[in-house]
Design brief:
Length: 93
């Protein structure tokens, strides 16, 4: 693996708050008229009126409200490393 893999990790972990904010997950709640609001509505409807704890919507909101846990950083860093290595590898002959 080359140095590209390190940058992939940094980019993956560093952009998560920006990406979550762009779709409507904010530190104070779900922003109206964003994808996050539609996801919340769909999840609540499917669950009989409330968003289930541990669901994707609940997890994304928690990440944006509290920041990334060490486990999340490790997972995202690993994914970024794999992506960076793949992007930095030469094309097949």
């Amino acid at each position: 693996m080359g140095t590209e893999s390190g940058w992939g990790s940094v980019v993956a972990v560093g952009t998560v708050p920006v990406e979550l904010g762009a779709v409507g997950f904010t530190s104070v709640g779900i922003a109206a008229s964003f994808i996050a609001a539609k996801m919340t509505s769909t999840a609540a409807t499917a669950n009989g009126g409330g968003v289930a704890a541990g669901s994707l919507v609940a997890t994304l909101q928690s990440v944006e409200a509290a920041g990334l846990s060490v486990t999340s950083k490790v997972i995202l860093g690993s994914a970024g490393t794999a992506l960076g290595a793949w992007l930095g590898s030469p094309p097949p002959s």
